Q: What sequence folds into this?
């Protein structure tokens, strides 16, 4: 055989590429360093040639701008490069398993993206006449049908733009229902200690006082505490199921019975619906209102051509108070019910100027159709299976917060196993960056000390799960054997090293001003 | 000095109680980055939220260990929240409260009882 001795070598010359090497320019190879867009440009120039305005300035009287606008003057390729370079600094679901899970991002199937870009959906104007958008309205109607069927609830408001916006929608419906029934003394909303921070924030925003419900040793709602606090002053409870500890609230039927017996409504935070879709219908659990984060359960991005989407399903009791608009079908086709009509007389108002986020509706509906009812169920089951695989593989070394029984779609560990090592949850998370993984959710839920919450989602293969577990077990071994430098000064291989979060929070610098011509810019270092 | 199970401390001088969070709480919270103290003149009921302390890890309510009226808040904390970490049981005090009922103070844990309580956590 003839060996090619002059071609390019197939192995790097050193086993540790880049170690101790510094480029002449201070650059990082093809991974470019990148300044702020304002620092990259001149203030006098513009990247686009525009003709001088010929007339009109006299109409402005003395209001003609005398100073330059001081916007960055970049050309199109400079602008594109700026954002692509920034994106290279970002970690993404398209690069590796992302243990923050669906809260932040799970895989967005490309089919959804293709369909959302169909001009018949993508190019619609919200003020287009109803006769010209019958297809879009039909899609909204079908999406509503799927959401109602999957949740076992009779009504849905599609317009909320995010999970927290959906919470607001649900609580406004609850407040409207209490007002309609003369229940004005109900001023309290109960939330568990482990609730998402948005739950008490939403309740307070709507004007309710928040009271916490305690938690049992196995991470569930404390029924006795709930029963004691369910007075006739309680407007609603807000419970996440599966909860933020990744556990199914096994007393959910009793929770809903107690709530209704006290005359309150049951708001379910549907953030974790992705763990039970196709297996459990919240309507069967006695839920009165629940938001569905389309990005979590139905794989949309958080935004895209606008914000995200957090539809809210409503029970029979709350349906009359649903916000407008909604889609109906009559003899002449689809139309939107707006607030002036009699059939919407009890609607509490509206959440958005228009009908909601069409781009997310298309993606979510594409996901539903491409999976089918059985496929959605399998996605939920795979999400739970993957989380339990991680829990089982890591539990030998790391301490599971609730070791008894399986978890749902999230595996929760605490920091008991790090006791005495000097390594904190934060250090461990930073060291994960050096291993090529984004850190998991840290220090949440608050009820677990040094929490590490891992959600792999349904779309990871066994090989990728193993790669992740191997990396974490390797790190855990290093922590337990006293390899402190690996942790306390991590990350070592990120574009920036450990940032001073405390200083950033205590003395935040929220503005940046360009230097005057001839004056050096203010240093970014803190005082 | 007396203590609560929610990790507040109280030092009584006449009928004015100085209130703060314990060294244990400050250590558990990590670096404190923001403190919201109650307005002087506010009437407090024992057990209700009287202040908010935010660290790099989490935001937490501080509960009023005693009923009474706020007579002074520690204004220095807004510019220097790190005092809570540096001197939690001295310069890092949150508020002074004119107490309504001395019995509430007597019912709180003393240092030995609080230390024993921490052992159980």
A:
């Amino acid at each position: 055989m003839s060996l090619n001795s002059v071609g390019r070598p197939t192995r790097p010359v050193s086993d540790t590429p880049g170690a101790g090497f510094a480029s002449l320019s201070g650059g990082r190879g093809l991974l470019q360093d990148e300044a702020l867009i304002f620092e990259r440009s001149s203030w006098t120039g513009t990247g686009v040639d525009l003709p001088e305005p010929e007339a009109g300035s006299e109409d402005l009287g003395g209001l003609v701008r005398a100073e330059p606008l001081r916007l960055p003057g970049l050309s199109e390729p400079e602008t594109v490069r700026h954002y692509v370079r920034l994106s290279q600094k970002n970690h993404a679901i398209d690069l590796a398993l992302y243990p923050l899970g669906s809260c932040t991002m799970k895989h967005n199937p490309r089919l959804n993206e293709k369909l959302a870009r169909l001009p018949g959906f993508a190019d619609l104007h919200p003020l287009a006449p109803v006769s010209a958008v019958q297809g879009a309205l039909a899609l909204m109607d079908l999406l509503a049908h799927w959401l109602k069927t999957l949740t076992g609830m009779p009504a849905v408001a599609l317009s909320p733009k995010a999970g927290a916006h959906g919470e607001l929608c649900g609580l406004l419906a609850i407040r409207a229902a209490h007002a309609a029934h003369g229940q004005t003394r109900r001023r309290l909303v109960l939330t568990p200690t482990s609730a998402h921070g948005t739950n008490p924030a939403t309740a307070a925003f709507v004007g309710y006082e928040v009271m916490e419900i305690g938690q049992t040793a196995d991470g569930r709602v404390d029924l006795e505490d709930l029963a004691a606090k369910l007075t006739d002053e309680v407007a609603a409870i807000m419970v996440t199921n599966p909860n933020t500890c990744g556990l199914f609230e096994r007393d959910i039927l009793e929770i809903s019975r107690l709530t209704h017996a006290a005359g309150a409504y049951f708001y379910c935070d549907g953030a974790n619906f992705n763990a039970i879709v196709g297996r459990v219908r919240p309507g069967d659990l006695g839920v009165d209102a629940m938001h569905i984060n389309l990005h979590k359960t139905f794989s949309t991005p958080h935004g895209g051509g606008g914000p995200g989407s957090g539809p809210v399903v409503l029970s029979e009791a709350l349906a009359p108070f649903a916000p407008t608009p909604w889609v109906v079908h009559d003899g002449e086709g689809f139309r939107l019910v707006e607030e002036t009509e009699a059939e919407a007389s009890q609607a509490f108002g509206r959440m958005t100027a228009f009908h909601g986020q069409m781009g997310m509706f298309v993606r979510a509906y594409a996901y539903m159709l491409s999976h089918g009812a059985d496929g959605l169920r399998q996605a939920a089951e795979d999400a739970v299976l993957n989380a339990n695989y991680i829990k089982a593989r890591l539990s030998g070394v790391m301490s599971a917060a609730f070791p008894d029984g399986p978890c749902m779609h999230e595996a929760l560990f605490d920091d008991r196993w790090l006791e005495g090592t000097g390594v904190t949850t934060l250090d461990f998370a930073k060291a994960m960056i050096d291993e090529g993984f984004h850190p998991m959710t840290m220090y949440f839920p608050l009820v677990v000390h040094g929490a590490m919450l891992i959600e792999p989602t349904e779309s990871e293969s066994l090989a990728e799960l193993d790669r992740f577990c191997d990396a974490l077990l390797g790190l855990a071994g290093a922590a337990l054997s006293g390899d402190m430098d690996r942790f306390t000064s991590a990350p070592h291989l990120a574009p920036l090293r450990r940032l001073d979060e405390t200083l950033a929070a205590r003395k935040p610098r929220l503005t940046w001003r360009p230097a005057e011509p001839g004056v050096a810019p203010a240093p970014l270092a803190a005082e | 000095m007396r203590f609560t199970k929610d990790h507040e401390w109280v030092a009584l001088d006449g009928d004015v109680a100085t209130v703060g969070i314990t060294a244990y709480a400050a250590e558990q919270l990590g670096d404190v980055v923001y403190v919201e103290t109650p307005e002087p003149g506010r009437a407090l009921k024992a057990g209700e939220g009287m202040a908010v302390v935010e660290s790099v890890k989490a935001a937490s309510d501080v509960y009023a260990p005693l009923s009474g009226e706020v007579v002074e808040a520690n204004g220095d904390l807004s510019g220097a929240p790190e005092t809570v970490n540096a001197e939690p049981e001295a310069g890092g005090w949150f508020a002074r409260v004119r107490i309504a009922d001395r019995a509430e103070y007597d019912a709180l844990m003393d240092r030995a009882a609080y230390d024993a309580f921490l052992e159980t956590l």
Summary: The mean pLDDT of chain B is 94. Chain B is about 25% helix and 35% strand. The first helix of chain B runs from residue 23 to 29. The interface with chain A takes residues 31, 33-34, 54, 56-58, 81-82 of chain B (CB under 8 Å).
